[in-house]
Automatic annotation (TrEMBL):
Residues 156-168 have a biased composition (Basic and acidic residues). It comes from the Bacteria. GO terms for cellular component: cytoplasm. It comes from Onishia taeanensis. GO terms for molecular function: peptidyl-prolyl cis-trans isomerase activity. Residues 6-86 form the PPIase FKBP-type domain. Its main location: cytoplasm. The keyword Membrane does not apply. Also involved in hydrogenase metallocenter assembly, probably by participating in the nickel insertion step. This function in hydrogenase biosynthesis requires chaperone activity and the presence of the metal-binding domain, but not PPIase activity. This is Peptidyl-prolyl cis-trans isomerase.
């Protein structure tokens, strides 16, 4: 079965930046990536490159920022009140996930002042050229519940109950 919209894909990947620095490796964590193809679960350039491949395929994909996490936008660096954070101790480099206009976003603390905190809401990999080494492990049809949710559901999920909740 080939990778196509509405199919669940399981794969291993190795991610490096333009300098060859290793950023992530699913094999090191022994956790393959599982996603629902065609539902914006991964970056657009990677999804396009994987389309049509079958289990056993290995490929290398280099993505420019516009195909991955976008260009850096300096307007996304801003000052916010210190009270906006759930912890008392803040240090530069800390990251938090917060709700954003387009869904969850990562906020990186840049500077900490007495009353204000300088943060960056760009994705941490924005502006980066990224290379993925990929191995497709499996491809299967998504269940109706997974299609309704927009992402794969954990193994053992009672899909009938998930679908019933969707109707209510």
């Amino acid at each position: 079965m080939q990778i196509a919209p509405h199919r669940v894909v399981n794969l291993h990947y190795r991610l490096t930046d333009a300098d060859g620095t290793l950023l992530d490796d699913s094999r090191a964590r022994e956790t393959p990536l599982e996603y629902l193809h065609g539902h914006v679960n991964i970056v657009s350039g990677l999804e396009s490159a994987l389309e049509g491949h079958a289990p056993g395929a290995s490929l290398s994909v280099t993505l420019e920022p516009d195909e991955a996490y976008g260009q850096r936008d300096e307007a996304k660096v801003q000052q916010v009140g210190r009270g906006s954070f759930p912890v008392a101790e803040l240090t530069p480099g800390m990251r938090f996930q917060t709700p954003g206009e387009d869904g969850p976003q990562v906020v990186t603390v840049l500077e900490v002042g007495a009353t204000q905190v300088k943060v960056d809401t760009n994705h941490p990999l924005a502006g980066e050229t990224l290379t993925y080494e990929l191995e497709v492990l499996s491809v299967r049809e998504a269940t109706r519940a997974e299609l309704a949710k927009g992402h794969p559901l954990p193994e053992g999920t009672d899909h009938a109950k998930v679908e019933d909740r969707k109707v209510l």
